[in-house]
Amino acid sequence: MVKHIVLFKLKETLSPAEKADIMNRFKTAIEALPATIPFIRDIHVGLNENQAEVWDICLDSSFDTLDDVKAYAIHPAHVAAAGILKDAKENRACVDYTI
Question: Residue 7: which region, alpha, beta or left (left: phi > 0; alpha: psi -120 to 50)?
């Protein structure tokens, strides 16, 4: 099994209300993906509550293989959900590892 962990930092120029709206829309869209992408084994989006930390969003997901992660990355439903962050994202970090 492969864990796919992604952290997102949103732009500081966004107001708290804008950030909250974007983060909640992203969470809802991503967590709905298993209904459309059957090879997602598990997926959760955590919204950071600790403002002293750098990252705003953590996506934690599981797939059977790295090929499944790659297919997920280009799946149209995922691309649409990820598009929610397109103009709001300042930075992204990702780790894929086998468990």
Answer: beta
What is the spatial distance between Cα 7 and Cα 59, in angstroms, rounded to a whole number?
6
Dihedral sign from CA coordinates of 95, 96, 97, 99: positive
Sheet strands side by side (includes 57-63): 40-47, 57-63, 2-10, 89-98
Query: What pLDDT sits at residue 86?
Result: 95
Report which of 45, 40, 41 is spatially closest to residue 77, judged by C-alpha positions.
40
Q: Encoding tokens for residue 99?
A: 């468990």
Q: Which tens digit of pLDDT belongs to each residue from 47-97?
A: 999 989 999 999 999 999 999 999 999 999 999 999 999 999 999 999 999
The type of residue at 29 is: A
Q: Give the whole-angstrom CA distance, residue 57 versus residue 60.
A: 10
Task: Name the residue with tokens 């959760």.
Answer: 44
Sign, Cα dihedral of 51, 58, 13, 90: positive
